[in-house]
Amino acid sequence: MRIARFSIDGNVAFGAVEGDGPDELVLDIIKGIPFADFELSGTKVPFSKVRLLPPVLPNKVIAFGRNYAEHARELGHEVPEVPFAFFKPSTSVIGTGDAIQYPSFSQELHHEAELAVVIGRMCREVPRERVDDVILGYTAANDVTARDVQKREKQWARAKGFDTSCPLGPWVETDLDVAAASQLTIQCTVNGQQRQLGRTSDMITPIADLIANISEAMTLLPGDVILTGTPEGVGPLSVGDEVAVAIEGIGTLTNKVVKRG
């Protein structure tokens, strides 16, 4: 099931996405929330009548850096021996169609296409073999990065945590297990030109191990998001660019870059 979060007539709801072609998509409004037992209402609204929102509002976004060997090398970094985690605040999250605001304190903004894992229930110290039990589904993400700030400041709070730096969407795909999610193609285009092309099977630390690793240290809550790293090919974004992250079996996340103001 594809679960989207949307607004219509000033109200916010979750809905199950139905249909295939862009002109055929409708939302069957969910009674309740997707993190508990829910029913489909049978009330359906066309996509043309709604605004898609970030598919979840996470308490925290935990991102893993340098989890693809070629990406680490293209930036001149060593491949980490253990998973390397950092945080993006909830205020960084936007949805598909929302604008990425070019931060005033940076001159070098980069895209980073990533597979995002959405946690479905409260959990801690999750065994690797139980990871499927705590995952709601998967979505696309763009770990937008002020690369010059990242290099200059060494730690990454401002470089990766500024407002609008974490586009998520377009929805959450719940019909993938960890095995399937570990065999997907990730692509990033800027103004229709391919920049990144990789596969989740190229991760240094696989999805199950990432969740086991971070849940050893902290409790994960429903709606929390885990970013799993980006393949090689990261590159610059300019004001006016349209950047799209497409993940096989999930969908396409599209955002335009605007001047912050």
How would you briefly describe this protein structure?
By secondary structure, the chain is mainly beta. The protein has helices at residues 69-74, 147-153, 157-161, 178-181, 207-215, and strands at residues 2-8, 11-18, 26-31, 39-46, 51-52, 61-65, 84-88, 93-94, 99-102, 109-111, 113-119, 135-142, 145-146, 166-173, 185-190, 193-199, 225-227, 235-237, 242-247, 251-259.
What does the model show?
The protein has 261 residues and is mainly β. The protein has helices at residues 69-74, 147-153, 157-161, 178-181, 207-215, and strands spanning 2-8, 11-18, 26-31, 39-46, 51-52, 61-65, 84-88, 93-94, 99-102, 109-111, 113-119, 135-142, 145-146, 166-173, 185-190, 193-199, 225-227, 235-237, 242-247, 251-259. Helix content is 12%, strand content 42%. Strands 1, 2, 3, 4, 5, 6, 7, 8, 11, 12, 14 and 17 form a twelve-stranded mixed sheet that branches. It has a five-stranded mixed sheet with strand order 9-20-19-15-16, with no helix packed on it. The chain has a three-stranded antiparallel sheet with strand order 13-10-18. Strand 1 (2-8) and strand 2 form a beta hairpin. The radius of gyration is 17 Å and the shape is globular.
